[in-house]
Amino acid sequence: MNTSNIKKYAPQARNDFIAAMRKQAAKYGITADRILPAEQKGDLLLIGETVFPLSVLKPRDKLIKRIQTSSFEQTVDYIAYSWFNRLCAIRYMECKGLLDHGRRVLSSADGSAGLPQILEECLDIDLPGLDASRVAELKLDGNKDEELYRELLLAQCHALNQVMPLLFEQVSDESELLLPDNLTKTDSLIRDLVSSIPEEDWSDVQIIGWLYQFYISEKKDQVIGKVVKSEDIPAATQLFTPNWIVKYLAQNSVGRLWTMAHPESTLANDWEYYIQPAEQTDEVNAQLKQLIDVRISEDGDTLNPESITVLDPACGSGHILVEAYDCLKAIYLERGYRSRDIPRLILENNLYGIDIDTRAAQLASFALLMKAREDDRRLFSNPPKLNIIALQDSQPERLDAFSQDLASTNIAQADLQELLDLFEHSSTFGSLIQVPEALAEKLPDLEKKLKTASESGDIFSQQSAQELLPLVQQAKLLGKQYDAVIANPPYMGGKGMNTELKDFAKKKFPDSKSDLFAMFIERGFVWCKDSGFNSMVTMQSWMFLSSYEAMREKLLQDRTIQTMAHLGARAFPEISGEVVQTTAFVMQGQHINGFKPVFFRLVDTAQDSKELELKAGLNRFDSTVQDDFKKIPGSPVAYWLSNNVYDLFESTLFGEHFEVKEGLGTRDDDIFLRRFWEVALYKIRFSKGQEKWIKTDKG
Question: Domain named Type II methyltransferase M.TaqI-like: which ranges (predicted)?
Fold first, then answer.
């Protein structure tokens, strides 16, 4: 899609939203420098010399508490982005006609950036919690459009809270307090959103991911190349994946699993990025059949679509999960499911997403819900339970308090401590956290006891249980095994890692500690079933560099490369130059002896031709057996070499037949040798002459 308008709008929108939130916070006596005291006067609240309704007290106190927990800057930045998310979500829904009442909330009936349609037709609007008499009173007054529109917009957000609680938080929270004034004015944030991005750009849910990328682009520029703080890791590592690369990964993992289990399936003909495997020997095919038969046996006589699980461990705005949805939908349809039943089944049974950024998880949830809503307009009447989570940090220092509050549940304090210790740095380590097997076995019982406590009459027990249940949920998702792990993991070398992350990498991922993406490759196989697929687009460095040799040798020994698109530089349109050189691959969880992967060498292909060449099957290499890579010292993934070259490495060494010695030796190269560019041309002797410097061959 054309991203030029989004690229122009989103970075400036971030500055505008933050400025608006700052102004609103200052209105309530809260700035970066100080917080004015608030004094209750009957049913009024006095802040400085300004009087407010007493209803301001509770959300203001919540806002202050949040600032004290983190900082003024982080709090304002978070709430600004939350409102940006919400308004973008509403804009997408109104453009797609997905709001139940059928009116536009941000734009005029004709789609222009004028007076919002919901304000014009407010007397006909029915939203949960909206006081019809109050609406009529404000409308008939004639001079209270701003107040009326604010109530309508908040009512719309509250209504959507029932469907998307992560994105549209509950009533009367601190983010509602910072919603700016003058929302219907010509210079408002809403008018700018409507006028800056043409309506046709809202036709594809991909816009959510692009808005996310460009919104944080300035923040990314500020932190890139430095040691990154935990709260800045999302901005430093986020990168929206081109759609065709995502399709390639999804169709050759989720799709490949289905075609292995159902050779009679015709879906591969419809998947334009599906790669037909290389011709294999009978022995290889027998190993593949045994592998898929074990997976099928988990479901009975045939692979059940409802049992296929897909994880994106760094899900961002949900782009990969949306494409996986399309693959799964095709599988369900081929299997004969009713169209209206499929969306809910996919969201509740098949798709899982994890991120360290709550804002990204909000967008991922929204993108999936919108995708499903297009297929089932009744979906919001009974909202599905999504498996999308933002990892939360625990508070190990509160162990004794939790234990005391939950004393009646018989939960062992040691189990609570293990859970709390595991997630102390969730926002830094993210999905790389591995759940010990012993703890994973205890999670069902722990969850059951906490749910009972959360429904008890003991308020302290309820509160502690509600705080701990999300930790159990994230432990379950991190400890689960999946049929397909698909990701564009974060890229960050050791220079960018803070001390905690660097120490964690050395301890938990000694073979891949050089970069986050390499650690995610290794972590991906822990999630994978033997028959499952680890599909990622990463930097290409793991294929060749000596720093990844141990990791590479383990992968080639224990796993199977099914297909790889070696993209090289310029695969991502937003990254110019040769710095980021990437490869997209699909690996299977178990090693298949003698397997021939399919590679595509696109490193020398122009950016706009990489996709076309992949679809056309150009530059395909499928004659090399994966095991041959180990013949070359260091085991580089040099798939383009001929079999004759690999055979050379099995021959005897030159030194075993001949004595190898140094040629001409000066005994002091610093004095007697120069590179050719270090010497002026007229000083070099090419034939006979008296010039000082002569050419020499030196190995």
Answer: 349-569
Domains in the chain, please, with CATH?
Answer: 4-203 (no CATH), 237-390+481-644 (3.40.50.150), 396-479 (no CATH), 661-699 (no CATH)
Q: Is 621 helix (H, G, I), strand (E, B) or coil?
A: strand
* Token pair 């959360």 in the structure block, residue: 454
Q: pLDDT tens digit string along 362-383? A: 889 999 999 999 999 899 889 9
Q: How far apart are CA 8 and CA 564, in angstroms?
A: 34
Alpha-carbon separation of residue 293 from 260, 282, 289, 430 (angstroms) = 9, 16, 6, 34
Instruction: Give pLDDT, residue 694.
Output: 87
- Single-letter amino acid, residue 247: K
Q: Which residues pair with 533 in a beta bridge?
A: 484, 588
pLDDT, residue 238, reads 67
The residues pairing with 536 across neighbouring beta strands, listed in sequence order, are 487, 585
In this structure, how many other beta carbons lie within 10 angstroms of the beta carbon of residue 360? 25
Name the β-bridge partners of 505: none
**How many other CB atoms are found less than 10 A from the CB of residue 225?**
10
Residue 38 three-state SS: strand
Residue found by looking up tokens 């990328």 in the block: 213
DSSP state of 515: B
The residues, ordered by sequence, that sit 6+ positions from 462 with a Cβ below 8 Å of its Cβ are: 453, 454, 455, 456
- Residues linked to residue 645 through DSSP beta bridges, in sequence order: none
**DSSP annotation of 223:** H
Q: Which residues of the chain have pLDDT under 70?
A: 171-172, 220, 223-226, 234-238, 574-579, 698-699
**C-alpha closest to that of 240 among 535, 3, 477:** 3
Q: Please count the CA atoms within 13 angstroms of the CA of 297 that sit on its side-chain side.
A: 7
The pair of three-digit structure tokens given for residue 480, joined into one six-digit string: 């689960």
Write down the pTM of the prediction. Answer: 0.87
Residue 494 and residue 234: Cα distance in Å, rounded?
Answer: 16
Q: How far does CA 596 lie from the centroid of its chain?
A: 31
Measured CA angle at 7 (ends 3, 12), to 5 deg? 155
Rounded CA gap, 77 and 431, in Å? 24
Give SS3 for 362.
helix
In contact, 54 and 43? CB cutoff 8 Å: yes
For residue 172, the model assigns a pLDDT of: 55
Q: List, in sequence order, the alpha helices (H) in 28-144.
A: 57-69, 72-95, 117-120, 132-141
- Positive or negative torsion for Cα 256, 258, 264, 266: negative
Q: How buried is 196 (Cβ within 10 angstroms: 0-12 exposed, 13-18 middle, 19+ buried)?
A: middle
Rounded distance between C-alpha atoms, residue 177 and residue 24, angstroms: 8
The residues near 408 (Cβ < 8 Å, ≥ 6 apart) are 453, 456, 458, 461
Helices first, then strands: H and E counts in the chain: 28, 14
Burial of 687 (0-12, 13-18, 19+ CB in 10 A): exposed
Q: What is the pLDDT of residues 184-218, one digit of tens each?
A: 888 899 999 999 999 999 998 889 888 988 888 88
